[in-house]
Write a structure and sequence with these properties.
By secondary structure, the chain is of the alpha+beta class. Helices cover 30% and strands 36% of the residues. The protein is built from six helices and eight strands; from the N terminus they run ββααααβββαβαββ. The longest helix is centred in the middle third of the chain and has 15 residues. This is GNAT family N-acetyltransferase.
């Protein structure tokens, strides 16, 4: 079981008790743009996902962790490594903090720092990438703080509220 600890938060593996939290995130249409979700998920499907969440990243090609405040089991967000490619030593990375009142307090930054460090030190990855809407200034600021650079823009990539928006591909290459 993975637990990564920071100053004010820690990252932990998902548990069956996280069903309602994951259900709420996966079915929040306001987050669908960020997570590239297009349809709601049932509790049944999420329960199945949580039952298999103990799979090794090498099997699942994904690692999803709950972001929790220190001293609390309750999740405030999720952070993921996805499209894990051990041969080419890379993965995508994404983060979501569920409620507005928990955003802009440094917890997302701390969580991202912990997972970047884990990806480079423990998983021996060479690079991470993130796909970020060019309208998501907060995420762009967060990722560029860690050295992610925009390596390209996908024009009219995402449809949102009857209009198309651009999506940037941000990359961080580990300097050993």
């Amino acid at each position: 079981m993975i637990t990564l600890t920071g100053d004010t938060i820690y990252l932990r593996a998902l548990e069956p008790e996280d069903l309602e939290f994951v259900y709420a995130i996966e079915n929040d249409e306001n987050i669908w743009e960020v997570s590239n979700t297009q349809t709601p998920y049932s509790r049944f499907l999420i329960r199945q996902y949580l039952e298999n969440a103990q799979q090794d990243i090498y099997e699942a090609k994904q690692l999803r962790l709950a972001i929790c405040r220190s001293g609390s089991f309750e999740a405030i967000g999720l952070i993921d490594l996805f499209d894990f490619d051990p041969r080419n030593q890379r993965a995508g990375i994404g983060i979501v903090i569920k409620n507005n009142e928990n955003r802009n307090q440094g917890m997302g930054k701390e969580a991202l720092g912990l997972l970047i460090d884990y990806a480079f030190r423990q998983l021996q990855l060479h690079q991470l990438y993130a796909n970020i809407s060019q309208e998501n200034a907060a995420s762009i600021k967060l990722f560029t703080t860690f050295g992610f650079r925009c390596i390209g823009v996908k024009k009219d990539w995402m449809r949102s509220q009857h209009q198309f928006t651009d999506e940037g591909m941000y990359q961080l290459i580990h300097q050993s």
